[in-house]
Design a protein that fits this description.
Layout lengths: L6 H42 L7 E5 L2 E5 L1 H46 L17
Antiparallel strand pairs: 1-2
Helix pairs in contact: 1-2
Subunit structure: Heterohexamer of two alpha and four beta subunits.
Subcellular location: Cytoplasm
Pfam families: Prefoldin_2
Length: 131
């Protein structure tokens, strides 16, 4: 079917496919960030419920390093703040991609409807030869 479409319509379809891929990537990134945010918030809540003198460890790569309560709390709090900003940014990006997709979809639909069949006065319309 795409072989019969005008080049402009084919370009719009390719742009739609690209936007769809972008939307999927943004959705995946957002889901990962939301999961990390929930995990970090849970860890922060857990820290609220323990004493400041409790022996604590922080994961650094493959290692666990002893850390102070205040340092662990501050690091987690910063991570939560950072992830909240990330999720908000991805929300906005997701919305922009959705708006672009819908706009492009409308353009393509108008292009295809406007170019189909030559309109009411096209071939076979009034005045077509046939003596």
């Amino acid at each position: 079917m795409q072989g019969n479409l005008p080049p402009e319509a084919q370009e719009k379809i390719e742009e739609l496919q690209d936007l769809q891929e972008t939307a999927q990537q943004v959705a995946q990134q957002k889901q990962q960030a939301e999961t990390q945010l929930r995990e970090s918030e849970t860890a922060l809540e857990t820290l609220d419920g323990i004493e400041g003198e409790t022996q604590m460890y922080s994961e650094v790569g493959e290692l666990l390093i002893e850390t102070e309560y205040d340092e662990a709390y501050e690091n987690l709090d910063e991570k939560v703040d950072s992830l909240e900003v990330r999720v908000e940014t991805l929300d906005k990006q997701e919305e922009r991609v959705r708006e672009q997709f819908e706009s492009l979809q409308d353009e393509l639909q108008q292009m295809l409807q406007g170019g189909a069949g030559g309109g009411p006065m096209g071939p076979g319309g009034p005045g077509a030869g046939g003596a």
